[in-house]
Design brief:
mainly alpha; 6 helices; Helix Hairpins; about 230 residues; single chain; 2 domains
């Protein structure tokens, strides 16, 4: 056999093996469940990352709000000191204005971060729905797989029993039993026929002896006397 023929044989065998695996619903379901579990793991990893980003962003937004409130408080404190004459009015107003600018900047950043956190939270909600859907699908497929395996075992056992019954019938065992039954019935009929024939062939002596054996038959002298009386012989 040439090397090309051998390669063709191996390739053909592998192709048949692949086709057999593809046609096996149990193996296909098991592979589908494994793929879904991989997707579930990836989805859960992405969900954790997005939730983490949302938490960090929301925390930063809250910090920016606190800073804005702090700058506003500082600006008010500067103006109060100016009123009490503790600070030069020009210097107090300059610093208060800068504090208010910082407050506006922190407020704007807090708003931007809050919007970003909201987007992350919406994305996390979508991912959570996908994760729940994949989990439900995996559970459904696993339950279907258990049922499919049970049905496959039952079908295999039933097929094996039917094949055994078919082999028994095809081997002629049932036919031989029927033939034996017919032969036994024939022998029984013949035995009964021979018994009837034996009964019909009994002689008069046999009947007389059978009657005497019963112990109730009259003696010969008594029978003779009775017979003479009937005939009128003295």
């Amino acid at each position: 056999m040439s090397i090309f023929a051998r390669i063709f044989k191996v390739t053909q065998s592998e192709a048949h093996s692949v086709i057999d695996k593809l046609e096996d619903p149990i193996k296909m379901t098991e592979q589908g469940i494994r793929d879904l579990k991989k997707d579930l793991q990836q989805a859960m990893t992405s969900l954790a990352e997005v939730k983490s980003m949302a938490i960090r962003t929301r925390r930063n937004a809250d910090n920016k709000k606190k800073l804005a409130a702090d700058y506003e408080r500082k600006a008010m404190t500067l103006l109060q000191k100016m009123q009490r004459g503790e600070l030069d009015p020009a210097e107090a107003e300059r610093l208060a204005a800068q504090a208010l600018n910082e407050k506006e900047q922190q407020t704007a950043e807090a708003l931007s971060l809050a919007q970003e956190a909201e987007r992350h939270e919406q994305m996390a909600g979508q991912l959570q729905a996908n994760v729940s859907k994949i989990k439900s699908t995996v559970t459904t497929y696993e339950n279907d797989l258990v049922t499919l395996k049970a049905r496959a075992r039952t079908a295999a056992a039933t097929r094996k029993i039917n094949q055994q019954i078919a082999r028994v019938d095809s081997s002629g065992t049932i036919a031989m039993l029927e033939k034996m039954r017919s032969r036994v019935e024939e022998d029984e009929s013949l035995a009964a026929a021979y018994g009837d024939m034996a009964g019909a062939d009994k002689s008069v002596d046999d009947e007389i002896n059978a009657a005497l054996a019963g112990g109730s038959a009259p003696t010969a002298s008594q029978s003779l006397i009775e017979m003479k009386q009937k005939m009128g012989i003295a």
